[in-house]
Design brief:
Blueprint lengths: L1 H26 L14 H17 L3 H40 L1
Length: 102
């Protein structure tokens, strides 16, 4: 009975250590410490989303996996908004040049 209790304790400790490792990786989602800022552009947002998805695939902790996938969704939403903003800026620039020529 004592051996079973010790084995269960060892398993629980190993699972906690794995979870802690997964959470540390999730907190440092970008690996190299870089952070995207609003002016970094669509490519940076997409890159960060891909990194979050990769880390989610590597983790065994369900909570960490869900958090990483939520972060990936947020990065993809920023990328989508960035593309829309870029399209609007392009259209406004074109409109301004046409109006300026009139």
């Amino acid at each position: 009975m004592r051996a079973l209790t010790e084995t269960m304790t060892d398993v629980a400790r190993d699972q906690r250590a794995d979870r802690d490792d997964d959470r540390r990786r999730a907190r440092s989602c970008f690996g190299c410490g870089e952070q995207a800022m609003p002016n970094d552009g669509v490519d940076a947002y997409t890159k960060h989303a891909a990194n979050c998805i990769r880390l989610a695939q590597e983790t065994n902790d369900t909570d960490s996996k869900l958090s990483l996938l939520d972060m990936a969704r947020a990065w993809l939403a920023l990328a989508d908004q960035g593309e829309r903003n870029r399209d609007i800026e392009t259209a406004m620039t074109g409109l301004a040049s046409v109006v300026g020529q009139a």
